[in-house]
Inverse folding.
C-alpha cells in the first residue's frame, strides 16, 4: 500500500517547484522564445508576401512593357504602311502623269507625222502630176517628130524614170 | 576493429552501471548462500527471492539519504536534510544523524523531541525500546502506533526533483539566450528545443484547446513536458545524480495531475457545467443519473493521468531490476548475458517510453482542458 | 499463496493488454498497407493508443504488486 500512498513532503515540494518553474520559465524563457519564433514566422510570412507582391509587380511591369512595345510596334507599322501607301501613291501619280504626258507627246508626234506625211504625199502627188505632165509634153513633142524616135524616146525616158 | 570493439565496451560499462543497485550487499548475500559451510544459509531460494523483492521495493521507494553504493558492509551515501514540521515548529537536521538506521533503533533528540526512522518514515520515538531495540510501538497487525511529524524533508526524490528543475531551467535559458541576439533560424541547442516547443504549441495546445485560448496554456504544457521527460530520464540513470524513482512516485504524478485538474475546473465554460450537471436533451430521471457520473468523470481523467505515469515508470523500474535480479535468483553467472541483453532491450524501450509518457501526459492535459473549455454550438442535436 | 494469485492477476492483465496492443498493431499494419503515404500519422496514433492500453495493463500489474505486498 505504501507504493500508492502519496507522501506529503514530495507532493508539496513538487507543487512548489513546478509552479515556480512554470512561472519563471513561462515569463523568462518560453515566452521570449515563443515570441521570437512568432516574430520570425511573421517575418517569414511577410517576406513571402512581399516577394509574391514584388513578383506580381514585376509581372505587371513586364506586361506593361510588353504592351508599350506592342503599341510602339503597331504605331511603327502604321507609319510604315502610311509611308508605303504614300510612296505608292506618289509613284502611281507620277506614272499617271508621265503616261498622260507621253501620250500627249505621242499623239502630237503622231499628228505631226500625219501632217508631214500628208504634206509629203501632197508634194509627191504634185510632183507626179508635174512629172506626168512633163512626160506627156515630151512624148507629145517626140511623137510629133518621128514615130520611131518617139518610141525610142519614150522607152529611153521610161528607162530613165525607172532608173530614177 | 575499433568500431566493433566500442559497442562491446559500452555494453560492459552499461551492465556494470545497471548492476550498481545490487552492488556488494546483494552480491555478498548471494555469495553467502552459496557458501555450503555455513549450515543455516543453505535454506532455499525463497528467502533470496524475498531479498530481491525487498531490494526492488526499497529501490522504488523514497529515501532520506542518497545511497550511492555499499562498500564492504559500509554504506556510502550522501546525507540529505530532514525537515520536520513538529508540534513545536520546524525541526531540521541531516539524515546521517540516524547513522543509516532504518529500524527505529537510533534516536535523534532535538530540543525536547525525539525522533526515529523506521522504513524511511520518521516517527516520534517511544519512551522505551522494544525487544528488538526499536523505539517504535507496533500494534498486533504490525502497524506502527507512534505519531508522525509532518515530513517535508529533502528526500532522494525531492533532491532529484530539484535537479530536474535545474536541468529544465538550464535547457530553457540556454535556448532562450539564443534568441536574444539571433532573430534568424535557431542555432545550436535552441535548434533542438525549438521544434519541440513548436510541436507542443501547434500539435498539442492548438489542436486540443482551440485557437481562442490555447496561448495561455502553452507555457504550462511546455514546462510539463520537459519536467516529466527530464524526470523520467533522470530516473533511468542508474548512478548517483539520477536513479531516484521520481516520476514513478505517486506524490509527484499526483501533484502534476492536480494542477491539470485545477486548470480544467477553473477554465471550464458554463456550457461544460451545464452538460455536467443538467445534460440537455435527455429525460429528467436520466439527467439525475448522469450528473454524478459526469461529475466523477471530471476526476477520473486526471486520476488516470496520475496512475498512468506512476504505473509506467514504476513498472519499468521493477522490470529492469527484476531482470537484473534474475542473475542473483538463479545464482549463476551464465544467466547474466541473457539478463543483461533483456535489460538493455527494456532499457531502450524505457528511454522511448520516457518521451512517450511525457508526450501523453502533456497531450491528455491539453485534451482535458480543451474539453472543459469547449462550448457546444450544436445544442439542437442533443 | 498471495504471491501466486497476484502473479496470476498480473498475467491476466498482461493477456488483455497483449490482445489489445496486438489488435492495434495489426490494424495499423493494415492501414499502412492500404495507405503507405499516411504511415507517419498512423504510427503516431498507434503509439498513443498502445500507450493507453499499456497504461490500463500497468494498472493491473500495479494492483497485482500491491496484492503481493499487502503492507
Amino acid at each position: 500500500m505504501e507504493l500508492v500512498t502519496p507522501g506529503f513532503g514530495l507532493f508539496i515540494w513538487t507543487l512548489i517547484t513546478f509552479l515556480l518553474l512554470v512561472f519563471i520559465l513561462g515569463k523568462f524563457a518560453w515566452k521570449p522564445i515563443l515570441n521570437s519564433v512568432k516574430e520570425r514566422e511573421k517575418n517569414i510570412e511577410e517576406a513571402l508576401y512581399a516577394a509574391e507582391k514584388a513578383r506580381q509587380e514585376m509581372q505587371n511591369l513586364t506586361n506593361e512593357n510588353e504592351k508599350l512595345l506592342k503599341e510602339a510596334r503597331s504605331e511603327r507599322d502604321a507609319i510604315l504602311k502610311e509611308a508605303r501607301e504614300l510612296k505608292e501613291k506618289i509613284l502611281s501619280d507620277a506614272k499617271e502623269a508621265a503616261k498622260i504626258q507621253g501620250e500627249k507627246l505621242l499623239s502630237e508626234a503622231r499628228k505631226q507625222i500625219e501632217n508631214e506625211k500628208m504634206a509629203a504625199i501632197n508634194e509627191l502627188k504634185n510632183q507626179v502630176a508635174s512629172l506626168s505632165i512633163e512626160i506627156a509634153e515630151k512624148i507629145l513633142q517626140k511623137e510629133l517628130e518621128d514615130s520611131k524616135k518617139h518610141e525610142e524616146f519614150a522607152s529611153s525616158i521610161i528607162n530613165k524614170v525607172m532608173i530614177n | 576493429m575499433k568500431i566493433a570493439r566500442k559497442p562491446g565496451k559500452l555494453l560492459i560499462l552499461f551492465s556494470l552501471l545497471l548492476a550498481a543497485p545490487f552492488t556488494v550487499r546483494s552480491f555478498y548475500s548471494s555469495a553467502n548462500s552459496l557458501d555450503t559451510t555455513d549450515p543455516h544459509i543453505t535454506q532455499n531460494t525463497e528467502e533470496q527471492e524475498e531479498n530481491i523483492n525487498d531490494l526492488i521495493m526499497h529501490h522504488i521507494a523514497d529515501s532520506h539519504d542518497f545511497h550511492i553504493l555499499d562498500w564492504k558492509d559500509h554504506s556510502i551515501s550522501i546525507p540529505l536534510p530532514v525537515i520536520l514540521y513538529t508540534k513545536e515548529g520546524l525541526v531540521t537536521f541531516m539524515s546521517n544523524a540516524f547513522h543509516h538506521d532504518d529500524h527505529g533503533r537510533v534516536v535523534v533528540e532535538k530540543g525536547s523531541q525525539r525522533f526515529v526512522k523506521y522504513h524511511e518514515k520518521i516517527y516520534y520515538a517511544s519512551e522505551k525500546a522494544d525487544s528488538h531495540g526499536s523505539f517504535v510501538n507496533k500494534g498486533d497487525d504490525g502497524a506502527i502506533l507512534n505519531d508522525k511529524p509532518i515530513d517535508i524533508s529533502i528526500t532522494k526524490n525531492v533532491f532529484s526533483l530539484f535537479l530536474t528543475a535545474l536541468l529544465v531551467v538550464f535547457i530553457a535559458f540556454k535556448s532562450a539566450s539564443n534568441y536574444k541576439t539571433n532573430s534568424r533560424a535557431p542555432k545550436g541547442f535552441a535548434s533542438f528545443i525549438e521544434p519541440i516547443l513548436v510541436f507542443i504549441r501547434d500539435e498539442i495546445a492548438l489542436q486540443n484547446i482551440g485557437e481562442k485560448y490555447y496561448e495561455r496554456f502553452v507555457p504550462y504544457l511546455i514546462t510539463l513536458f520537459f519536467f516529466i521527460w527530464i524526470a523520467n530520464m533522470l530516473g533511468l540513470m542508474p548512478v548517483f545524480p539520477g536513479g531516484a524513482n521520481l516520476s514513478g512516485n505517486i506524490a509527484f504524478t499526483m501533484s502534476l495531475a492536480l494542477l491539470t485538474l485545477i486548470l480544467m475546473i477553473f477554465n471550464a465554460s458554463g456550457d461544460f457545467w451545464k452538460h455536467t450537471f443538467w445534460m440537455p436533451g435527455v429525460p429528467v430521471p436520466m439527467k439525475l443519473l448522469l450528473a454524478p457520473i459526469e461529475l466523477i468523470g471530471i476526476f477520473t481523467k486526471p486520476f488516470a493521468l496520475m496512475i498512468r505515469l506512476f504505473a509506467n515508470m514504476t513498472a519499468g523500474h521493477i522490470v529492469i531490476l527484476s531482470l537484473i535480479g534474475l542473475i542473483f535468483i538463479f545464482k549463476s553467472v551464465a544467466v547474466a548475458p541473457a539478463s543483461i541483453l533483456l535489460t538493455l532491450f527494456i532499457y531502450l524501450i524505457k528511454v522511448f517510453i520516457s518521451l512517450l509518457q511525457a508526450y501523453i501526459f502533456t497531450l491528455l492535459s491539453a485534451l482535458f482542458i480543451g474539453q472543459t473549455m469547449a462550448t457546444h454550438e450544436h445544442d439542437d442535436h442533443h | 499463496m498471495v504471491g501466486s494469485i497476484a502473479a496470476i492477476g498480473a498475467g491476466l492483465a498482461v493477456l488483455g493488454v497483449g490482445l489489445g496492443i496486438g489488435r492495434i498493431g495489426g490494424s495499423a499494419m493494415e492501414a499502412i498497407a492500404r495507405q503507405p503515404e499516411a504511415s507517419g500519422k498512423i504510427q503516431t496514433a498507434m503509439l498513443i493508443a498502445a500507450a493507453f492500453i499499456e497504461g490500463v495493463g500497468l494498472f493491473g500489474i500495479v494492483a497485482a504488486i500491491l496484492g503481493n505486498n499487502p503492507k
Notes: Chain B has ten helices and eight strands. Residues 81-153 of chain B form one domain.
